[in-house]
Amino acid sequence: MKRRLKQCWKNVRGQDLIEYALMAGFVVVAAGAVAPGVASSICTIFRQVATVITAPAPHGGSTR
After folding, report:
1. Residue range of the domain that includes 31
2. pLDDT digits (tens, 9 = 90+) for 10-42
3. Which of 1, 5, 31, 62 reaches 20 to 30 Å from 47, CA-CA?
């Protein structure tokens, strides 16, 4: 059991993806601050992404 917990603790798969997503988010926010004309487009994109993320999985679908 102790060995299994150590393996889970050291598991860093997906960490790079999260870091890239955060960096992309920061770039988008900075672009919106610099060019206010694109701010509404950025807001629309974030709303669409939030809708997809919060949507429930289809019945019988896999969560993996």
Report:
1. 16-53
2. 666 667 778 888 898 888 888 878 877 777 887
3. 62
Sign, CA dihedral 15-18-24-28, equals negative
**In angstroms, rounded to a whole number, what is the distance separating the alpha carbons of residues 30 and 26?**
6
Report pTM: 0.44
**What pLDDT is recorded for position 11?**
61
For the chain, the domain total comes to 1
> What are the helix (H) ranges across 1-64?
2-10, 15-34, 39-54
Q: What is the radius of gyration, based on Cα positions, of the chain? A: 18
CB neighbours of residue 57 within 10 Å: 8
Is 59 within the bounds of a domain?
A: no
Give the separation between CA 15 and CA 23, rounded to whole angstroms.
Answer: 12
